[in-house]
Design brief:
Length: about 180
């Protein structure tokens, strides 16, 4: 099949309303090293769904997408040698969801990020970092009110985060027991 025809077929598939469901299974059930092209296409389709087709999804579909990505991301901590690209791409998709849903549809998004730092420290910090990058990006897709809400949420919790990160990074478990 010629290259242009392949591209056209993939774009046609990506625009189908239910394509994201198959791509979600591929992106969360497979290792990036098994078939990189398929994995990247699947995550690209999910990003397209989140950024361009979100309003067309049912609340059940939105919940399925959110929960599957969160669960898959949280499980990465239990998987040895997860590729940084794999981890960061899933975090990026979750951050895009958070940007769309926090605070109205998912008021606990930031709290979930914080809780993740308690069980999977590196994943939680990575997700907070990527979410912050999304907020400060100059894409113009966030209202000033949303950015102010995020900023006030962050400022209200910054002292706790700083304290927790410091303890996690620089204190031994024996020292933490005495705190």
């Amino acid at each position: 099949m010629p290259r242009n025809e392949n591209r056209d077929n993939l774009l046609a598939f990506k625009s189908q309303p239910e394509a994201w469901q198959l791509c979600l299974r591929v992106a969360t059930a497979s290792d990036i090293t098994e078939n990189q092209f398929l994995w990247f296409f699947s995550t690209s389709t999910l990003e397209h769904t989140i950024t361009r087709r979100w309003t067309q999804l049912t609340s059940t579909d939105k919940t399925l997408l959110r929960e599957t990505l969160w669960n898959s991301y949280a499980q990465l901590g239990a998987t040895p040698n997860v590729a940084k690209r794999h981890r960061d791409t899933l975090a990026q998709l979750i951050a895009l969801l958070g940007k769309r849903e926090f605070p109205e549809q998912d008021p606990n998004y930031m709290q979930h990020c914080m809780e993740l730092t308690k069980t999977r420290f590196q994943l939680g910090i990575n997700l907070l970092k990527i979410t912050s990058e999304e907020v400060v990006s100059n894409r113009g897709d966030l209202t000033t009110e949303w950015k102010q809400y995020f900023y006030s949420w962050w400022v209200n919790r910054a002292k706790r985060v700083k304290s927790y990160v410091f303890k996690k990074r620089f204190c031994s478990p024996i020292l933490l027991m005495s705190v």
